[in-house]
Design a protein that fits this description.
single chain, 125 residues, 2 helices, 7 strands, 12% helix, globular
Amino acid sequence: MKNVIIKQVYAVGMHHSGVRQLDVGPIYYCGKKEGNPKDPNAIALYEDKNLHHRVCYLRREDAAKLKDIVIYAQGPCYLRTKFGPEKFSRFKGPQQNCNFGFKFNESDATTLAAILNGAFIHTIF
């Protein structure tokens, strides 16, 4: 098994679930949000590994790019915030810069690297 870490993925919508921001340091778990009429590619972030307590979502642009990548994940995808929330414009809520990671089979390394190159800043190890 290998790991991939994708950098500069943004979490959004924290204020809708009651938390003003994600804590820097702890690991959050990701799960596809099926049946979302506003965003069919939505990826939700949860506090627990069982994906019960949703705290926010990945930014729509990031989730759309990650939809072709997460199919290679073996086990849960995880996310760790790196900084406090930032506000880029008055039309959007705060966003938090995060690293997104998961484990995958070594046999998929070449295919996954080809998809990631040019789309994300990433590390495969």
